[in-house]
Amino acid sequence: MSDTETLASLQPPENPGRRRLLTWTTGVVGAAGAGLAAWPFVASWKPSAKARLIGAPVEVFIGNLEPGQILRVQWRGQTIGLMRRTERMLEDLQVLNERLADPNSEVSSQQPGYAQNIHRSLRPEILVANIHCTHLGCVPQVLPEVEAQPFDADWRGGFFCPCHRSKFDLAGRVYRGVPAQLNLLIPPYSFIDDDHVIIGVDPQGAA
Predict the structure, then answer these.
(1) Which of 28, 70, 130, 176 is the most buried (most CB within 10 A)?
(2) Could you give the 3-state DSSP secondary structure of residue 94?
(3) What is the pLDDT of residues 96-147, one digit of tens each?
(4) Is 120 helix (H, G, I), strand (E, B) or coil?
(5) 23 φ, ψ to 5°?
(6) Distance CA 99, CA 97 (A)
(7) In whole angstroms, what is the distance from residue 63 CA to residue 112 CA?
(8) CA-CA distance, 184 to 161, in Å (whole number)?
(9) Alpha carbon distance 62, 114 (integer Å)
């Protein structure tokens, strides 16, 4: 037996299966390491819980909202007012047209198409409006009663901004001759049932 033959006989026999196993194991460990190294960056790309909440629809319970009351909630950083209007309030909307800048809500950007009506709402008795003044974004006072005011002797109820004296009726329609030029903004919304409104979601089938 030659030396060459002796040395060759000490080498482990060729084992293709073992080689494939080692190659596969090395690949898996390498991929795992790369994944762990990349995780902080991937995690940083995911939106935070707070970010996910921004802009998310808001469900509001209105079952205990009494006639004449207004409920304020926050949606997308804005104050949304939900008011249950009385019959008297709805009747007064009919007589204010001459005093309003846009009584028929013809500025389409100020409300969805399903709220382009005299009461500017899906259901006449429920107003859902962004109650920030369309002049400089102040939140006006809510003065629903029909009574003379220092700023309007024939006040029929509505929203009054004391900062710059803009006035809106109880449908959020702006009066003529005040700093604000646009009606209050009506956000997209729909009813889940008689007692729940979801702000940020149009009614099913709405364009």
Answers:
(1) 130
(2) helix
(3) 999 999 999 999 999 999 999 999 999 999 999 999 999 999 999 999 999 9
(4) coil
(5) -65, -45
(6) 5
(7) 24
(8) 12
(9) 20
